[in-house]
Amino acid sequence: MLKNLLLSTFLSLRAHKLRVFLTMVGIIIGITAVVTVSAIGEGMKQSSLKVMESTDANVIRLIYKVDQSDDSIGFQDEEPFAFDKLDLKLLRGLDGVDTISADYGFGFGAKEMVTSTLNYFDTSGSGQIVATSKTNTPVGFGNSFTTEQLESNSIIITYDTMQSTLGIRKPKDIIGRAIDVDGIKFLVVGVKSKIDDGAMIMDDSAFFDEVPKKAFNDLAKNKPINAIKLKTTDHSDRQAIIDQANTLLKEQHPNLVGTFEEDRSNEQARQQIESMLQAVVTGLLFITAISLLVGGIGVMNIMYVSVSERKREIGIRRAIGAKPITILLQFLLEAAFITLIGGVIGIFFGWGLATLISTFADGITAIVSPSMAILSASISAGIGLIFGVIPAINAAKLDPIKAIYQ
């Protein structure tokens, strides 16, 4: 029975190729839109999350956290806690720790960053400065660091620092000039490209001024150490290292009532951004799914036309013994086949369009997962079943005698 139904469905669709294709167009457009939005959205999500991730998964950012359950904390008049060089020296002997470094920043990732005051004649302002040991820093104007400049007081500033902080309008007016950074003279060798409003930034280094590591150490030596970064060896026990560090630091600072623990703010922010991006993508998918509704209505319309044109065929088949369920299944199969084939075509079109878009969107790679492709194909077939069920029921309910003579 199934074999005959499939053969009959195939022959019926082949007999009306143009009409079948035109019916598919709505489904093809709908699935193409859904797959494109999904692929670009997933690519944007993955690219954005990479910005939030640390450059080394084995890095523990250790911070001091006040014990909020102790009511006496509110009455203490203390300066905010900052680590010192002795703390770094104390933790160097921990088992499972490869390297250790001071963290002067408050943000995410593994960048070494300090907040400094930049001055150029009578103009001054604060800037976020990170350390680098590379000679390939992307710049829009001037040059990146040379090997010799990595050993000197050189700086690459952002376009925003140039205009907003230093009051310079054009890069040529500052490149090759010296600026004052926390009382130390730095030679400006390059200016980063301007960040346009609404631009998708996949590398957060575009927001920071950069200086060589050696010069950074001179800027940081008088800055408070807000955290300690422990780079662990492979297969080391992360929690055991944190517990050992907490014990040693509490012995070093017996008057503190808080604890030393891993900073998980990066992970929390990552989860928030992931949820936000997922909500945006989901909203866009619902909007693009409207085109699938339009395609489904087109399928229903064409199936009604097909039932009207084939009343005589239906009546003859019923007269020679075909059951109503057989007629119902055949029309459902025809509707499902039309939308399934249209869905498969739409998946390939969507993948191609998303790939094309990603070539023009720097840092975004279109991602079409197998699960998304299967889900899209299933949705397209389901549309055929849902919107084809009423015409199929009408076909199955036709009176065979009346159908033959109509």
Give an overview in words:
The chain is of the alpha+beta class. The protein contains twelve helices and eleven strands. It has helices at residues 2-15, 17-52, 85-91, 159-165, 213-220, 238-252, 265-288, 290-309, 311-319, 324-360, 370-396, 400-405; strands at 59-65, 97-103, 113-120, 123-132, 141-142, 154-157, 178-181, 184-191, 209-212, 227-232, 259-262. Strands 3, 4, 5, 6, 7, 8 and 9 form a seven-stranded mixed beta sheet that branches. A four-stranded antiparallel beta sheet has the order 2-10-1-11, with helices on one face. A hairpin with a 2-residue loop joins strand 3 and strand 4. Helix 2 (17-52) packs antiparallel against helix 11. Mean pLDDT is 82; it is low at 73-78.
Offer a few descriptive terms.
406 residues, alpha+beta, 4-stranded antiparallel beta sheet, 11 strands
Structural topology:
Elements: H1 2-15, H2 17-52, E1 59-65, H3 85-91, E2 97-103, E3 113-120, E4 123-132, E5 141-142, E6 154-157, H4 159-165, E7 178-181, E8 184-191, E9 209-212, H5 213-220, E10 227-232, H6 238-252, E11 259-262, H7 265-288, H8 290-309, H9 311-319, H10 324-360, H11 370-396, H12 400-405
Parallel strand pairs: 4-9, 6-8
Antiparallel strand pairs: 1-10, 1-11, 2-10, 3-4, 3-7, 5-8, 7-8
Helix pairs in contact: 1-10, 2-7, 2-8, 2-10, 2-11, 8-10, 8-11, 10-11
